[in-house]
Amino acid sequence: MKNYIVDQLQQLSDAARALCALAPSIEQAAQLCLQALREGHKIIFCGNGGSAAQSQHLAAELVGRYKLNRPALPALSLTVDTSNITAIANDYSYDQIFARQLEGVGRTGDVLIGLSTSGNSPNVVLAIKQAKKMGVRTIALVGTPGGEMQHMADLALTMPANTSAHIQELHIAVGHLICDLIESSLYA
User: Fold this and answer.
1) What per-residue string of b and e applies to 90-99 under the rule 16 or more CB within 10 Å gives b?
2) Which of 80, 147, 165, 188 has the fewest CB atoms within 10 Å, i.e. the most exposed one?
3) Nearest to 169, CA basis, from 178, 180, 160
4) Do 135 and 112 meet the contact criterion of CB atoms below 8 Å apart?
5) What is the pLDDT confidence band of residue 188, given thresholds at 50, 70 and 90?
């Protein structure tokens, strides 16, 4: 068991080191978000399962605080309203749960950050398509090899991992970096 633990931690450590190659893309993601916020727009997150939890977590880092005591930033996760999610899933389809909400709350100039370990989650893919129709900029956080979202988003950050757990661990690290860069650029 100990060898397995060491192997898993080594794989995660190697993948985290490989994230250094994404530094320019992480900076670009932060700049897209900063531009939106400076222009009075918001950051919107979506994802399924663990990615839903991370969407909520990252929105909370911006609305609450990451490191600094500062004014709340406009951010939300499309994963939290069970009445909307279940009504849309029932009346349309589960694939529409994020796109339909985005149609209601998104505005030109906002940024949508979609998280998916496969990059092929149908409801996140449709949210990106909806965002493009609305003039909402899109950032995809995906795993290797990147799936459909990698080719659709304005900016795709493909994690150097191919297991869901490691992809999600890297997603939260990248999300925290983006929150850190936003907060320090606006309020440090």
Assistant:
1) eeeeebbbbb
2) 188
3) 160
4) no
5) confident
DSSP 42: -
- Tens of pLDDT, residues 37-86: 999 999 999 999 999 999 999 999 999 999 999 999 999 999 999 999 99
Q: Which secondary structure element, helix H or strand E, spans residue 179, and what is its range? A: helix 164-187
What are the backbone dihedrals phi and psi of residue 109, each rounded to the nearest 5 degrees, phi first? 100, -20
Strands in the chain per DSSP E: 43-46, 75-77, 111-116, 137-142, 155-158
In 3D space, the residue among 115, 119, 92 whose CA is nearest the CA of residue 104 turns out to be: 92
Q: How many domains does the chain have?
A: 1
Say which CATH number the domain at 7 has: 3.40.50.10490
Total-model pTM: 0.97
The CA distance from 43 to 12, in Å, is 28
**DSSP for 126-159?**
HHHHHHHHHT-EEEEEE-TT-HHHHHHSSEEEE-
Interatomic CA distance for residues 171 and 158, integer angstroms: 9
Domain range for 60 is: 2-187
